[in-house]
Amino acid sequence: MKKIAIAAATGNIGKRAAQKIASGNATAILLGQNLERMNRLAIKGAIPTVTDLSDPGQMIAATQDADALFLLVPPVTRLPSLKEWYQRVTAAGIAAVTENKIKRVVLISSLGATTAADLGTVSYCGRMEAAFDELDAHVLALRPGYFMENFLQQAAEIKNEGKFSFPFPDDHDIPWVSTDDIGDAAARYLLDETWAGHWKLNLMGPENITLAEAAERLAVLTNRPVEYVRQSVEDLTAQFSSWGIPGHIQHELLALYKALGDPDGVYATPRTPEAVTPTDFEQFIKRKLLKTT
């Protein structure tokens, strides 16, 4: 049976990809640092493997029998910089693919990954893509837009207080995409043995929606007024500090949000039919946000 290694298997995208792989008559090798959380996923036939994604030796050992690798760089704040973290995870993934002769790799990158060098983690994703493109393996970089699931962190405020916030102008046009759809796309290509070469695929949801439009739609769905309140740089910095995020990583995250908020930047990427994913905003809100406690 085909074996597929799934990095960050307990995250939204990794979990969804692993579930789809298990239902596709393949074995998911779950890579993560918390064995209990991986076991709680209860994915049929899965092999949970405690693995530091930034350690080449551990990645090589964990993917020894893998036919394909799904690689996502999970967020961390314990290192001096996110740039270093991306470099380390990239190097460990390349070591695993090279040593174990893994045939196919699906990366989670970012929309606009190769547009500029100063876009925070968007640019780091571009460098990861470039590094994997040097390999003989077949490599697909999925480039999603902004996650719909970012609304879930504010579910209580939306339902109880009628407000939500992001660090973008209210008229900023954003390609919202569900992480379920990203996981589904990853699993589809990990299971498919017919594609070849090095590919990039944008994932942009069914439509772009401004935050003002999101507030209007949330008001209808929650049956109460909902207001969008733009988060200032000062408020965002204070939030980062309250979370214990080091200063240099704060600067990297601010660079990311500045890039994502640029009206002529990465989210101005033209749409193509291949970039469309099925879950629309209303479906996401009904299926996930309104069901949170």
Keywords:
single chain, alpha/beta, 11 helices
Distance between the termini: 40 Å
Biggest sheet features = 7 strands, parallel
- Find the structural class using helix and strand composition: alpha/beta
**CA radius of gyration:** 19 Å
Q: Taking all residues together, what is the mean pLDDT?
A: 95
Q: For the largest beta sheet, what order do the strands appear in spatially?
A: 3-2-1-4-5-6-10
Structure description:
It is built from eleven helices and twelve strands. The protein has 293 residues and is of the alpha/beta class. The protein is globular, with a radius of gyration of 19 Å. The model has no long low-confidence stretch (mean pLDDT 95).
List the helices and strands and how they pair.
Elements: E1 3-7, H1 12-23, E2 27-32, H2 35-40, E3 47-50, H3 56-62, E4 68-71, H4 82-100, E5 104-108, H5 121-132, E6 138-144, E7 146-147, H6 155-161, E8 163-164, E9 174-177, H7 179-191, E10 198-203, E11 208-209, H8 211-222, E12 227-228, H9 233-242, H10 247-260, H11 281-287
Parallel strand pairs: 1-2, 1-4, 2-3, 4-5, 5-6, 6-10, 7-9, 8-12
Antiparallel strand pairs: 9-11
Helix pairs in contact: 1-7, 3-4, 4-5, 8-11
Short description:
41% of the residues lie in helices and 17% in strands.
